[in-house]
Amino acid sequence: MPKINVYLSDELADAVKQANLPISAICQRALEQAVRRVTAMHESLHDEVNLEANVQFSRFTKRAQTIVSLAVDDARADNRPATTADLLAAMVDENENLALRVLRSMDIEPEELKAALAARHAQPAEPSDQHYEEALKEALRLAVTEAMSLGHNYVGSEHLLLGLIAEPAGSAGHQLRSAGADLRLTRRAVAAVLAGWAARNETAATPTADVVTALTSAVREQLQPITERLDRLEQRLA
């Protein structure tokens, strides 16, 4: 029977040992459930993407649907398939989504990304009756996977961002990774921003500037252990 290694933090590993949990059985059950859920979401997304003209993905939030619609409409105006660059540009144009907060918390300015992607229309694309390029379809599928890996039953703008970064061939992912949006760091940034957002909703109203500052601080605190580890590795390799 094939084996899969599962890596735990030191704290979690100690807690599992103390509780004497049946790790193999728990992992197998959790993976079986995850596979069923991801497969169902992927099949649903595949069917809806195949409809081409219909971008009302059932698991996508209204804001995520708006972003996808903006990307498709922009590409349709040029009679070409929507690309990952279109999706990222639409994310920036929408201007109110959580993905932009995640990027800014990582000191990545969305408007600069948009400017770098402006050249996507410099060369006319071949006319096509398809609404999505293959890289964009894959990015949308990966967004579903990222949502599931975070334990979410919806796909929001933050998951679209992770999908773009995880997809290897699209121009948007290349631009994001070049700007410093490493997938692992961005996952942690998403988790931190969501945690900060939930905490904010449980408290009294806070001025917008204070909320952004608090979210940024929370993200940087989450990322600090990774950046310190990277610094130590660079010092060893120097």
Question: What features would you highlight for this structure?
Answer:
238 residues; mainly alpha; 0% strand
- Structural class label: mainly alpha
Mean pLDDT: 78
End-to-end distance: 42 Å
| General shape | globular
Low-confidence stretches: 47-56
Biggest sheet features: none
Helix percent band:
55-70%
Query: What's the SSE pattern?
Result: HHHHHHHHHHH
Strand tally, please? Answer: 0
Residue share in β-strands: under 5%
What Rg, in angstroms, do the CA atoms define? 20 Å
In DSSP terms (H or I, runs of 4 or more residues), the helix count works out at: 11
Summarize the SSE layout with pairings.
Blueprint lengths: L9 H10 L3 H28 L11 H16 L6 H11 L3 H8 L4 H8 L16 H16 L7 H10 L4 H8 L4 H20 L5 H30 L1
Characterization of this structure:
- With 238 residues, the protein is mainly alpha-helical.
- It has helices at 10-19, 23-50, 62-77, 84-94, 98-105, 110-117, 134-149, 157-166, 171-178, 183-202, 208-237.
- The protein is globular and about 60 Å long.
- It starts with 9 loop residues before the first helix and ends with a helix.
